[in-house]
Write a structure and sequence with these properties.
Helix content: 40-55%
CATH architecture of the largest domain: 3-Layer(aba) Sandwich
Number of domains: 2
CATH superfamily of the largest domain: Alpha/Beta hydrolase fold, catalytic domain
Radius of gyration: 20 Å
CATH topology of the largest domain: Rossmann fold
Strand content: 15-25%
Largest sheet: 10 strands, mixed
Length: about 375
């Protein structure tokens, strides 16, 4: 299941160590693309049954943990399905129901959210408040997943990096992402220019949120989506992206990488004709958008990114008009990890969370390019 990206690692991470055995079994079971959906479904059904039995017995913590893991497995089962068929809709419904059950029992406040768009449709999301929230207005981050990720895995079950720092999280499936196309909300550059404003407008109506301290964080293709959103919404006070997708037109990921990426994004865009999609993707770019961004911008990238060559990220960073920091990990591929620089240098998720907390608090940093060497040492140069 990890032939193109370390999928089992990033799916298991928010679940915690209790799910490790599931993912060992999934790696053994999934030997080809067609194995993925039934394998994840089997584990989802088992975890959901455990959760229901535990809740009936009054063991709410065990129920909570198994509902969460079941929701992630149901989301994993959706991954290879690139159409709105009955199977995808069924998996999506089971994911929502399991996550809703988790939300009832979570150790922090979790609320279902629906973000209105200008066309009348609503983006699905979940709002999380920190476990120790006791009132007043606090910072918030809009969490944007990647192409193969979904909002239910955007906040860790325990010890989440943002919640632990007193920051609320609005985890959203934006236009084209996971649940949104099931609801008929597809990717377009125009849809994403509206998404940042829609999310901030929704958060601004919440009494818990400090509207002067809202940021956005995106991973993988979420790095493009977050950039587009922030370019059109100055109330997003800070932008942090990682494992980036920054190549204008996206030739490398769609023509030289796993064909699953192109299949997935065609579904996200509601396009079935490959030639039409090839023309459509030419307009997918940060160019003309990054130049509008004056908010602080943090970018975490792999030197050897195999789906988005690093030179495109270097160009984007030069185009930004506000404070910026580019962190490049020596020898790392697209998914940041698994090499000495990522093991010994700054831990990317924690660095993002620390930077976001500081930036939303008003702290400023010099414009710098950090190159994290294999030794873990960081070479800093002006940017």
């Amino acid at each position: 299941m990890d032939w193109d990206q370390p999928r089992s690692i990033y799916l298991s991470a928010p679940c915690g160590p209790g799910a490790a055995g599931d993912f060992v079994a999934l790696r053994q079971r999934i030997q080809k693309y067609a194995d993925a959906a039934p394998a994840f479904e089997a584990h989802a059904r088992r975890r959901e049954a455990i959760a229901r039995a535990a809740e009936a017995d009054g063991s709410n913590i065990t129920a909570r943990e198994n509902y969460f893991i079941a929701a992630v497995h149901w989301g994993g089962a959706q991954w290879p399905i690139d159409e709105n068929n009955d199977q995808n809709k069924f998996y999506n419904q089971r994911k929502r129901e399991c996550y809703g059950s988790y939300a009832r029992l979570a150790d922090h406040r979790v609320e279902e959210a629906w973000i209105p768009l200008p066309d009348g449709k609503r983006l699905p999301a979940w709002l999380h408040l920190p476990p120790d929230y006791a009132g007043g207005r606090i910072p918030a981050v809009v969490s944007v997943p990647g192409m193969d990720s979904f909002k239910e895995m955007g906040v860790a079950m325990y010890g989440d990096r943002f919640l632990s720092r007193g920051i609320a999280v609005l985890a959203v499936d934006g236009p084209g992402q996971y649940e949104s196309p099931v609801l008929g909300i597809y990717f377009s550059m125009e849809a994403w220019t509206a998404t940042g404003t829609a999310c901030v407008d929704w958060l601004a109506r919440r009494p818990e949120i400090d509207t002067e301290k809202i940021g956005i964080s995106g991973n993988s293709f979420g790095s493009l989506f977050s950039t587009i959103a922030a370019a059109h919404e100055p109330r997003l006070r800070a932008v942090a992206v990682s494992a980036v997708c920054h190549e204008p037109g996206f030739h490398t990921i769609f023509e030289e990488a796993s064909p699953t990426f192109k299949m997935r994004f065609m579904y996200m865009s509601n396009i079935t004709d490959e030639a039409q999609f090839d023309e459509f993707r030419k307009a997918m770019t940060w160019e003309g958008y990054a130049q509008r961004i004056r908010q602080p911008y943090l970018c975490m990238a792999g030197e050897a990114d195999e789906v988005s060559p690093i030179e495109h990220t270097e160009r984007l960073m030069k185009a930004l008009k506000g404070p910026k920091r580019l962190v490049i990990y020596q020898d790392s591929r697209h998914a940041i990890g698994g090499v000495p620089s990522t093991n010994l240098g700054p831990l990317a998720p924690a660095h993002i969370a620390d930077w976001m907390a500081a930036s939303l608090a008003g702290k400023t940093f010099p414009n710098e390019r950090w190159f994290v060497q294999a030794s873990g040492q960081v070479a800093k140069t002006p940017l």
